[in-house]
TrEMBL record:
InterPro entries: Beta-barrel_OMP_2 (IPR025665). This is Probable protein-translocating porin PorT. Residues 39-204 form the Outer membrane protein beta-barrel domain. It comes from Flavobacterium granuli. It holds the Pfam family OMP_b-brl_2.
Amino acid sequence: MKKIAVIVLLALSLEGYSQGQNRIFGKDPIINLENFQKQRLYFGFYLGFNSFDFKIDYKTDGPDILVKKTTGFNVGLVSDLKLQEYINLRFEPGLYYTKRELNFPGFTREIDALREVNSTYIHFPLLLKFSSLRTGNVRPYLLGGVSTTLNLSSNSKSKDDNSAQKFRVQPWTKNYEIGFGIDIFSEYFIFSPSIRGVFGLSDELIRDNDPNSPWTSNIESMKNRAVFINFTFH
């Protein structure tokens, strides 16, 4: 994820440098898709990567649950409604796949300590996009808003719990999101790389049937948090 973020930021820097050089040497860049941002409503799609984590709060101090993250992938659609010159309302429903491993302390057997959490999310974010003034073919922006997520792999209806190697979470969660990106106007389309942080507002964990469960009894709350890197095409 760090390498991907560096590549995105490098690409943005090179584009900005190129625009700056054109201005310094008196070369006016060709303005691509000059009237595109005047549209009231437009659509697009995105592909990207994610890294999901859990923010875990405990009832009492003790050894932490270790969370091993992996890089997942995203795909989705974008609808963008222009509210005024620099503010747009965006709806970006998408499918997000990720995997995490939880290593619970206090167990000697791996079958008891390790839980694989494979998650397939349908993500519904409603965001406000705050754009800066367009410079040549570049327009940076900030994003922020709220979202709700449906986990298709939550195991919420299972009567088995961790004692039967079944880790359960709530199917629906609520989040807030904040991030930034840049619109790069090419001759035929707009390419928009962005990076966004997602922070869960609701407790996701379903406790085990036993109130003294060694897996869940000491957990006060377990909330999603994630980083999304998306590449959007309009």
